[in-house]
Amino acid sequence: MTTLCPRCHYTIVEGMTVCRVCGYKLRDEDSTREIPNIAQVVGRPDAGTAEFNADNQLALFIPSASHTITLIPTHCTVLGRFDPNKGISPPDLDLTPYGAFQHGVSRRHAAIYREGEGTLTVADLGSSNHTYLNGEQLKPRDPRILCDGDEVRLGDLILRVYFK
Fold first, then answer.
1. Architecture of domain 58-163 in CATH?
2. How do residues 63-81 score in pLDDT, each as one tens digit?
3. CB–CB of 79/92 below 8 Å?
4. Which of 133, 56, 69, 128 is nearest to 95 (CA)?
């Protein structure tokens, strides 16, 4: 049986007391308990890390297109779709080939920011159909830390985030 977090609907691993995504307290506990090794829980030791090193690349897997885009993010990498009829400069990552228009992706939908060495954040740029991080709607221009394994949704277009 699959258990979901009541706040963000993230799949909960048996034995967890706090949701990894939103921090929701899943049950009351009177004492501290021993937690299992993270590698045993998720299958690999670096899953969920927020550390993005200088030699890392960002891989964005688009399940609806069965395609992975690999890039090295700059200080600000804008995600969206290019519309040559609007006279707006194209986004740094044009998602048009992956059905961006059909999925409700704005021309300048969201941005991934590289915060020096070590951290990536994602922020909605005031898009019409919103940006979601692991199911939670982001407030416009309020960056949130990206972790390896996160799911970013632009409108209805899902991007799975991996650090390589």
1. Sandwich (2.60)
2. 999 999 999 998 999 999 9
3. yes
4. 69
